[in-house]
Predict the structure of Glycoside hydrolase family 13 protein.
Amino acid sequence: MTHELAPAVGLPAPTAAEGQSPASSSSEGRDWWRDAVIYQVYVRSFADSDGDGIGDLRGATERLPHLAELGIDAVWLTPFYASPQADGGYDVADYRAVDPLFGDLADADDLVRTAHELGLRVIVDVVPNHTSDQHPWFLAALADPDPDGARRRYHFRPGRGAHGELPPNDWESVFGGPAWTRTPDGAWYLHLFAPEQPDLNWDNQEVHEEFDSVLRFWLDLGVDGFRIDVAHGMVKAAGMPDIGHGEQASLIGSQTLPFFDQDGVHEIHRGWRRLLDSYPGERIGVAEAWAPSAERLALYVRPDELHQAFNFQFLRCPWEPAAMRSVIDESLAATASVGAPTTWVLSNHDVVRHPTRYGGGAQGLRRARAAALLMLALPGSTYIYQGEELGLPEVTDLPSEVRQDPAFFRAAGQDGFRDGCRVPIPWTAKGPSYGFGEGGSWLPQPAEWGALSVAAQTGDPLSTLELYRSALALRRQLPGGPMRWLPGPDGLLVLARNGLVCTLNTTASVVELPTPGRLLISSDVMDQPGDTARIPADSCAWWAI
Ligand code: NOJ
């Protein structure tokens, strides 16, 4: 897999420190989030500072210079809070404490400070739909069967059937099996995810107050925003009606269900927007919301709600030019209707890595590199999942005994493959865990990952890492602005944006075109005889016009 490095384009790439200023510094960078590139750090798998095989906050801090050099604007850290880790930390037992696995509050403070010094902002996860079953609130609810006591913070219900032996309704957990679990005293509680993740009752004012206080805690520590887990799930349809057709919600799905995307969630987000706006420096909220359409998703980013919402329609889109074009058009139109940016994403810790989704092997990597250039050419903000800049594929052969994804262990689970995208990333070509840490790694890394490490790819102009670095540096210099489609041969998407033309060849053959302009960057080697450009199969290029 090869690519031509961009010829010089006349402007030096800004250093990280000259990039967007951190929230604390000034009003420069106003609306910084509208076109920000935000890098997702899956803390457990990013860098391990103490050799226990599990990534941690100090490890992440030590590696921040790599991210600054990559050319991103902000990092999003997945949950590092005190947790029994029944779902990789998305089961929080104490929202104001760092789990000892990942360090302590001083480490969190140090990370935020170091990031700001490097010109990077920091977004942290907040998990408001459910707590851990070890959270003091849930322990109190289990201990007191009074339905009007501590149980009012969750959804406890009597069962159906002659003896209450059947769940209160037919809702299925996203991870498989019923969404209800019975307590020893006979009541049932709701958990849209694992039984260890009881759903909170957002009709209870105390829940609102607690989360306001949690957000303030982290904002006071200096974070620049929140990625809001299950932002579409906190409010359930009144009366919790049966679905009637036994449908299990799929992870990152788009079904219409009585427990997702209810209109009531928007009032919560409005309240949080007011809270975010009461802090200086444009702190942001990004919704992880699974909505049935681009229009429904856009409601989360109305001017008085959140700033961004992940565009999972783009993530789920197959390698098919008509589908890609219409997802892009629909997404841009929907967000434009509310004055918000579109937020592009190709991978995260819940989905099969995109080189594998796009067919795997050499073809998958070619397409992944091309998709990255397409995504970075689009108007709006972009999220990069750790390791995608290395072209890492999904690890598909993990033995059952090392797996930790709760979906894998629930027989009816519809996914079960989330561990394969969470394998710790390689930093060095050699070493016990390819530089991830001094010890091993909590999931085994494939032997070929040494060759994909940061060290192995650095300085190799044909590497995926250098492709990302070059593209991110170029992106900073481009004027931006809206995009429009230009005509092109079948299978070729051609978009133009204020001085930039981006060509994506989705076909398996070379496509010849009159040279669209001066080649800035290409995901594969571009042959340009005379005035012609031979656009390689499954490749993308940027041209200056
Ligand atoms: C979405 C998170 O990304 C995923 O990892 C988690 O399992 C669910 N929300 C439940 O919190």
